[in-house]
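Bench notes, afternoon.
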Amino acid sequence: MATPHINAERGDFADTVLMPGDPLRARYIAETFLDEVHQVNTVRSMAGYTGRYKGRELSVMGHGMGIPSASIYAKELITEYDVDTLIRVGSCGAVRDDVAVRDVVIGLGACTDSGVNRTRFGGMDFAATADFALTRALADAAHDLGVATRIGNLFSADLFYDPRPETAELLRRYGIVGVEMEAAGLYGVAAEFGARAATVCTVSDHILRGDALDSTARERSFDDMMRIALDAVLRDDAAKGATP
């Protein structure tokens, strides 16, 4: 049962899907962290995989860049493949003084300059928030792994190259913990279709200070974040009384 964007069959995806933006990151996650892996999606090279982590069936699939792309994949996974939990695992920029490169940020909520949530919410403002249980599991996993973490509002931008130089300072004043491009849309889709979603990101650069990770440090930080996300899935299962 294919969709316009996914050529998997129903049952090919686990109930929980980790979603990086880059499909090559999805392949890296599958090959590095999962056992018994098989590829379940190849359409538009947006790679999707299902395997097992410590016996727990788990899927990983790219969502592309920006709210429109992420929303398409999230919606189809939920409504056509019975996925009920989506965790975005990505990177973000920092603006706050107390957030640094290599830190991990968890998106309790997500502000945005996109109009998608107003469109889906009848023209009104929608508070795009993550699932609390998933957020708590991510925070507890990070704490126990000793990884520096900031939890709060993300800002999901429509423009990567924003022509408004004042935007970053405004976001800093409002305490935004990370600037990325997808979380607000993901949370909106999850709310609309009755699923759960959360976001965890590594800080790859500081927009105001100009700090940035090189490729080696970026990969190491990404692996720290992945250990948090994977541990959080198991914690979430335990909290629900689930077994692999």
